[in-house]
Structures are given as C-alpha cells and as structure tokens.
Specification:
The structure holds two protein chains of two kinds. Helix content of chain A is 0%, strand content 48%. By secondary structure, chain A is mostly beta strands. Chain A is globular. In chain B, strands 2, 4, 5, 6, 9, 10 and 11 form a seven-stranded mixed β-sheet that branches. Classes of the chains: A mainly beta, B mainly beta. At the A-B interface, β5 and β9 of A face β5 and β10 of B.
C-alpha cells in the first residue's frame, strides 16, 4: 500500500526558505500518470493547494504562491520536495503531501501523508 | 481562480440523522468535484470523487450529487465516526481549490 511521509524542519525563521520532503513508499514515484502534490492548512483554517508535479518534471503551482514555490522530484530517492522562499508568519501551517491521478479532471487527492507542522517564527 | 463556498459552516446533528452539505463553485466545474472528511490532527480522507464516485472502502451512507456549480454531500444515518469536518474541492482547472469546510458536530 502506498504511503507518503513528510519530513523537514518544524521551525523556520521569517524571510528564510521552508524546505520539506515527501518520501513515497510502497510504490514508485514514476508510476504512470500520477501527480504528486503539496497542500497546507494554517491552524484552524481550510486547506490550500500549493502545487503538484509529475515525475517527468511538469509542475503546476497555485498562482497565489507561484513566485515563491518550487516543487521538484528525485526519482533515485523516490521522493519529491517543496521549497517556499521568503516565508512569513502567514506560512505557518500543517503541510501535507498527497497524490492525485492526473490533471484535467483527475485532481482528487487519494493518498495523503500524515502532515507536518511548520512554524515561522524568530 | 475558481472559488468554492460551502453551507452551512457548522451543522449540529444526532446519530441516525440524515445530513446534507452544499458546495457551490464560482463557475462551471463540470463533474470535477471531490469531498473529503477530516478529523482533528489527521490528514483529510477522500470520500467521493467526480461528484458521486465513492472511494474504495467508504461506507455507502455517503453519497454525492450535483453538476455545474452546485453540489451536495449527503450522509444518511449519521454514525458516531462521521462527526468531523468536510471539505469540497474542485479540480476542473489546473489550479485546485478547496471549500472553507463544514463542521458536523453532535447536537
């Protein structure tokens, strides 16, 4: 069974870069047409899609974060990563990684990691 | 971007009740609509995709309907495990958006 696990620092200073990794186990990140995405949830608030990537490198980002976000894939390590630059307190959230079957009508997230809390504070 | 709204924001119900949550999109999203259940401290769980397709393992008391811009999630005969927050999500465009959530709590 496919499992996803987020990892990375739980505390990031304002103006610095948030970096997280999602390790995929029980399956290959190069499987078929799957896309791999990041979603975040500020404390007590709703879910926000950050962006998604296909193992061939196609990426799609939320326009509200586009200028600060980079998602990449490392096939050799079977993981994908998130970088969010110039963070502020508004970026404090639980960050989830998840999988969806594709684009264009296939963006339902059917497997999720447990989530990791990232706090932006000096 | 496509905006999603949900109503009500909170719903109080009893075990055995039938409840319905409404989700509206700011523009036509065809059938690209999913529903998730989230419990405190946990990741969301996919319940329904493509408006009415039940994810494997999800009880049949959950059902979805709608098209275009208005959609509903119905839970027939609410069970103790169903008290949670429910989110809709559109994926018709290449920018995915979630609704603000509906919390179902115990009356």
């Amino acid at each position: 069974q496919l499992q996803l696990q987020e990892s990375g620092p739980g505390l990031v200073k304002p103006s610095e870069t948030l970096s997280l990794t999602c390790t995929v186990s029980g399956g290959s990140i190069t499987s078929s047409s799957y896309y791999w995405g990041w979603i975040r949830q500020p404390p007590g608030k709703a879910l926000e899609w950050i962006g998604s990537i296909h193992f061939l490198g196609n990426t799609y980002y939320n326009p509200s974060l586009n200028s600060r976000v980079t998602i990449s894939v490392d096939m050799s390590k079977n993981h994908f990563s998130l970088r969010l630059t110039s963070v502020t307190a508004a970026d404090t959230a639980v960050y989830f990684c998840a999988k969806h079957p594709g684009l264009h009508g296939h963006g339902n997230f059917d497997s999720w990691g447990l989530g990791t809390l990232v706090t932006v504070s000096s | 971007d496509i905006q999603m709204t949900q109503s009500p924001s909170t719903l109080s119900a009893s075990v055995g009740d039938s409840v319905t949550i409404t989700c509206r999109a700011s523009q036509d999203i065809s059938t690209s609509l999913a529903w998730y259940q989230q419990k405190p401290g946990k990741a969301p769980k996919l319940l329904i995709y493509k408006v009415f397709s039940l994810e494997s393992g999800v009880p049949s008391r959950f059902s979805g309907s709608g098209s275009g811009t208005e959609f509903t999630l119905t839970i027939s005969s609410l069970q103790p495990d169903d008290f949670a927050t429910y989110y809709c999500q559109q994926y018709n465009s290449d920018v995915f958006t979630f609704g603000p959530g509906t919390k179902v709590d115990i009356k």
